[in-house]
Give the backbone structure.
Amino acid sequence: MKAAQARVLLTGATGGIGQAMAQALVRGGACVMLAGRRDDTLKALARRIDPGAAHTVCQQADLLQPQGVASLAAAAAHWGCNVVVHAAGIPAFGPLQAIPARDMGAVLQTNLLAPMLLTQALLAHLCAQPQAQVICVGSALGRIGLPGYSVYSASKFGLRGFAEALRRELADTAVRVQYLGPRSTRTAFNSAG
């Protein structure tokens, strides 16, 4: 699909990778629904990458809440999205014994369950499009487990498995599924602070 034909729902739009993707998509001519938890941050990003507001819309959503996933799916379908990019993600780095259970749950909810639920909620809409894509932004840590990354790796291994299985499940439809596993990036996500 050419960028000019794409109406992209981008979760995690205000994160480091999300911002770079949003900017590249808008430069390429795509229309982008910027999704994230903070409306003010989304609007600031939209003003920076699309001053005329010709290619962006903002949609506040908390993917840790079932209603956040449902409202985002409804807004994206109504807007006519034909590409979903799951770029939202949160870290949990350190020894397993030091990670609180609530943090484990938040990582699995954000990095794995929310993309699954959002895709499920949009699937009928996507399958009705002439062309559609689901892109899961994972990590190199979704292919190799390293000490200190057990929880994060589990979420990204799961996302990779979800994408691979869904790709095969939708092979006879117009929906294409991809998993991207970037290596470490220079973003606040990977900073020590």
About this structure: The CA atoms of residues 142 and 161 lie 9 Å apart.
